[in-house]
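Before surveying the methods themselves, we first show a specimen of the format, giving the amino acid sequence and backbone structure tokens:

:::
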Amino acid sequence: MADGSGETPASRAGTPVGRGPAGAPVIRLSSVAYTYRGPPPVRALKPTNLVIYRGEHVAITGPSGSGKSTLLNLLGLLDKPTDGTLEIDGIDVGAAPERERAAVRAHRIGFVFQSFHLLPYRTSIENVMLAQVYADEPRRRRRAAAMAALAQVGLAERAHALPTALSGGERQRVAIARALVNRPSLLMCDEPTGNLDTATTQELTDLLESLHRDGATLVVITHNPMVAGRAQRQIAIRDGQLTEHPPHGDTGAFPD
């Protein structure tokens, strides 16, 4: 479901892993809106209802200035909605204290950014382990979990390499491993292939699809039609309004 009024049936994945039962909502927005206070005030996101279920792969597209960044900041708990209710894993975080929101960010959301955001003087495994520090993971468990995350993205043999010795695709795989290491409920990717060439984009998109098949819940913000086309659901945002495209093979209108 993604619009300003009603719901549409969501497609479900096979047997997702992570917190909570398969198919349970990971994200629920109820009449969520965001207004920049100004002056003058600017309504960046119109009242929006959106449910993303566990195990889904969702792409969000839209031109610059459409409200994508506003929506990303709300879903990533970097901003609070000015109206409506925002839930992550059933937890009402829209108006929660910042300490609670930070805990949800650290434990339940994994972020992947266009520019990787790796520390240049830390090895791959050390960069992955940093996410565990923020989540207060016991020190004795960090290295093994980080190595497992690197193996999951096919980069175990590069665990001790510095980012400067890695290709762009390898650096993004390290960033994905860092996002995965705390077993989050949601993997949120902001233009994950924006700095990559066509061949590497294909490889990273294959990796994201593989993670989805293994049960990950993915929200991918992208300008790339090929990346968006691999998702189960495609949601467009324009002028602060969300619209969901029909599922693959369905050219009919959405039910009310």
Summary: The domain at 2-244 is CATH 3.40.50.300 (Rossmann fold). Confidence is low (pLDDT under 50) at residues 4-21, 249-256. The longest strand covers residues 25-36.
